[in-house]
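User: Please run a holo structure prediction.
Assistant: Happy to. Please share the sequence and the ligand.
User: Here you go; the ligand is phenylalanine.
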Amino acid sequence: MSGPNTQYDPVEVNALDPDTIEQAVTDALAAISGAGSLEELKAIRPQHQGDKSPLALANREIGALPPTAKAEAGKRVGQARGRVGQAMKQRQTELEAQRDARILREEAVDVTMVPARRPLGRRHPVELMAQRIADVFVGMGWEIADGPEVEAEWFNFDALNFDADHPARQMQDTFYIDPPEDGLVLRTHTSPVQARALLERGVPLYVGCPGKVFRTDELDATHMPAFHQIEGLAVDEGLTMAHLRGTLDRLASELFGAGITTRLRPSYFPFTEPSAEMDLRCFVCDGTNPECRTCSGTGWIEWGGCGMVNRSVLSACGIDPDRYTGYAFGMGIDRALMFRTGVSDMRDMFEGDVRFNAQFGLEV
Ligand code: PHE
């Protein structure tokens, strides 16, 4: 330690006093280690390292010292500033490391985490099947028509040649809209669209009409009070049963595979004459497996009804039955879907379980 310096005014240069300098360092080190964040460290920095900090002021005083005292004072102040600078740097490094660790922790992304996926929606398989059938109609150059689900009794029955006392009209088969005298029903088949299309569009007419129909059937594995049909109607000059057969075979092979044909069995519908039930060749066993579960070993699957449009239907719709003939058919869409998917209980199709759509709602 140098002795008292009598060459200069100690009052003016008391910033260079060793105790003062040591105190400045102690204060600076305490403040530095007390800084809990980079922001705090930044905030205390001017106080201890800035131009007005005690050590900076002391440094400035050195110039006023006599040359003999300069070296020692310079060394003392330099070391003091060095210690403060060092501590500052070290604390800065520590705090940066802490901040980086915190960011890594807080902003960590677990790439192995299973994300909450929102599954893609699927269209209902019945809807898809209806569209698929409608596409075949459009491919044949036919139009698509539709009609209301709440239908006038006249379209649902009268126009289609049902007698006033036909059993199908009875309340145990048909849902009537209250009050029953208003003559509104939930349509029991898509055939009323035949009459609507004839009246609205005239002839020649080639239309397919998919839609929902309703009957007071008890709910079981093969019956639903609401189900789906698709109607086909062709009215033109010179149409015969051969055209009907050709159309049905074309639909069958488009929907169930090349070579799948249909067969007709005599039947009765008030609005067609002659009428037939149509069966589909079993597309699973092609009639070769007596144990086949799809066709119960018969080789055929019941698919719907059909026939030549009854003259009285044409007349009711203002069409000359001596000039025009037509054929019509109606088939179950839900049934077609059951065959195609192997679903044996119809209720599975309408329970609204999205897993059903996920499994069968994709077209391949
Ligand atoms: N509408 C009849 C039914 O629901 C089916 C059918 C349609 C029959 C067209 C002949 C002609 O059963």
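The chain is about 40% helix and 20% strand.
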